[in-house]
Amino acid sequence: MTTSSTHPGTQADTHTDTPGKDAAVVQCQDICVERRGTRVLEDISFQVPASSFVGLVGPNGAGKTTLLKTMLGLIQPSSGTIHVLGHPPGRNGGAPSGVGYVPQRHAIAQYFPASVYDVVAMGRVRGLQLFSRLSRTDRDAIAKNLEVVGIADLASRPVGELSGGQQRRVMLAQALCASSRLLILDEPTIGLDLPAEHEFYALLRNLQAELSLAVIAVSHDLVALAGECDELICINRHMHIHGNPEDVIHSHAIQEAYSCEFNFLAGEIAHHESGDHVHTHRPAIVSPMPPADPEEEGR
To answer: How far apart are the C-alpha atoms of 6 and 253, rounded to whole Å?
Structure first.
């Protein structure tokens, strides 16, 4: 577990050209990003250990989505270095990226002309040449991931007819088809009710353990994510704190990041301290959020 640190970051972060199985899957060192002449991320340094679950939080406009896009290779940093699975983002020796991505939930039209199988199969497309067909290996991977997320019986159903929780599982299976080492999830439980949220996190934890996955997840639900992850990172343009989730949510640094006072009611975080990942109560958080940055797409 990474020990807690506050801005400026102090974690050592060195890149190895031939990462082993247990090496960090993501390494960021002094990352700065500018958008339209404005610096939206500054001096961000951290690493994500293999097989770990790292949560990323921060107020609206903090740069969370920008950081995810930088890890995915969709945005280039103006300075600093970043390596994902031992390579610059988006590169993996000519093979598919090796990163499974679950974007924010968007409503899928009821009559969207694609089956669950079709949508999951899209996770294999990146490694295919133009007009090539799915191989036996591809089809086996699709079938396996439909099974592991519990929706094999829905494979032929139109994806638009599914519930929000089922659609989240479809996108998770698609991401697993793209990578069995690293998943990046942007607000994976947004729009889900509490039971569906608990089920999704339980599934994600089981997959992480069975497949030795590394998981990076962004969420506005600070307390719920803190109860699930191994490490918690809080940013607001800068790195404010990175460490043990329990230490992070009680820190002065996170109050500074959100520019507000947190009121954790006595007794309501007992489930947190017991290590129980199933939330029956949550701390009350008073958090007047600043206006969203346009670059954060409403986040």
So the answer is: 7
